[in-house]
Structure formats: structure tokens, C-alpha cells
Design a protein that fits this description.
163 residues, alpha/beta, 22% strand, binds guanosine-5'-diphosphate, binds magnesium ion, GTPase Der
């Protein structure tokens, strides 16, 4: 049986970078600049011997602060409804921000099956972020580096019983 994983979280935490790594193609755009990726993007993911569908939630990057909440809420809710499991990414070098808390609330309200991923955790960079991520109350965070491919074995261990 296969499943659908939605990668959610605020702009710039590395969702598209992870999507690209899982899909193995440059399907999602990655950019330092806001305003590049849009809406929801679906791809066929491969993680070792696991195959599943992955959704990248984009489309939040171009909105202004006052419309961010409504827009990200709708997009994230759509992704959650399509997904069996959500990978909620935060930036381990930044820690938990108020915007991350808003996403956590959306996921809680939706009763989503959530995995917390502390991205940008290559080396020791994510140590503080990983500790802070506990405060989200969404379970045991895993440390990832989408860019450097670290933590993919931990992600696999969590996803394998689902797939
Ligand atoms: P998104 O807005 O959540 O889709 O984030 P992107 O995937 O577009 O990445 C935003 C920025 O973070 C880009 O400059 C990426 O290169 C960078 N980035 C993504 N993953 C990592 C990571 O694991 N480590 C570091 N240091 N940077 C990363
Ligand atoms: Mg993106």
C-alpha cells in the first residue's frame, strides 16, 4: 500500500529542497528569493525502497504579511486533507517562530498525523532548534538536512510502517 506525505511549514524552511530530494528531479523550484514556488505540487517520491506520493505546499511565499495567515491556512488545510501524513518542517537554525506555532495549530485542529522535521540541522546547526521543537507538542522531532541528505534514515524509519 502506498501513502501520501505532505510537506508543510512556513516559507523558507526547505520544503521544496526536501521535495526535490525525494522526487529526484527539479520539479519544485528552490530559491532564496520569496515568490518563486506556487500552490501545491505533487510528485512520486522514492526513499530507499519506499515509494509514495509527496506534496510540496508552496504558494505562500509571495503573499504579504496581512494575507499570509488566510492563504497559508487554506493551502495547508488542503494539503492535510490530501495527505495520510504531514511532515511539518521548521528551520533548526532559527528555532520555533510564531508563524511555526500557527502551522502547528492548523495541524492540531485538523487532527493531522504529524512528523516534526527540524531541517537545516547539518552538523550541530540544529541542536537548539531540535530542543525547541519539542515545545510544539507534536511529538518526537527528527533532525534533517534536506540540502545535505542527512536524517533520511530517520525519516525512512518513521514512514516505513505507514507505507
Ligand atoms: P521552502 O520555501 O520551504 O520551499 O524552502 P526552499 O526549499 O525553497 O529553501 C529555502 C532556502 O533554504 C534555500 O536557500 C535552500 O537552499 C535552503 N535550504 C534548504 N534545505 C536546507 C538545509 O538542509 N540546510 C541548509 N543550510 N539550507 C537549506
Ligand atoms: Mg518552496
Amino acid at each position: 500500500m502506498t501513502f501520501t506525505l505532505a510537506i508543510v511549514g512556513r516559507p523558507n524552511v526547505g520544503k521544496s529542497t526536501l521535495f526535490n530530494r525525494l522526487v529526484g528531479r527539479k520539479l519544485a523550484l528552490v530559491d532564496d528569493q520569496p515568490g518563486v514556488t506556487r500552490d501545491l505540487r505533487e510528485g512520486d517520491a522514492k526513499l530507499f525502497d519506499l515509494r509514495f506520493t509527496v506534496i510540496d505546499t508552496a504558494g505562500l511565499e509571495e503573499v504579504t504579511d496581512d494575507s499570509l495567515q488566510g492563504r497559508m491556512r487554506r493551502l495547508t488545510e488542503r494539503a492535510v486533507e490530501m495527505a495520510d501524513v504531514c511532515l511539518f518542517l521548521i528551520d533548526g537554525r532559527v528555532g520555533v517562530t510564531p508563524t511555526d506555532e500557527v502551522f502547528a495549530d492548523i495541524l492540531r485542529r485538523k487532527n493531522a498525523h504529524v512528523i516534526v522535521g527540524v531541517n537545516k540541522s547539518e552538523g550541530k546547526a540544529g541542536d537548539a532548534g531540535a530542543i525547541e521543537a519539542w515545545s510544539l507538542g507534536l511529538g518526537d522531532p527528527i533532525r534533517l538536512s534536506a540540502e545535505h541528505g542527512e536524517g533520511m534514515d530517520d525519516l525512512y524509519d518513521i514512514l516505513r510502517p505507514i507505507g
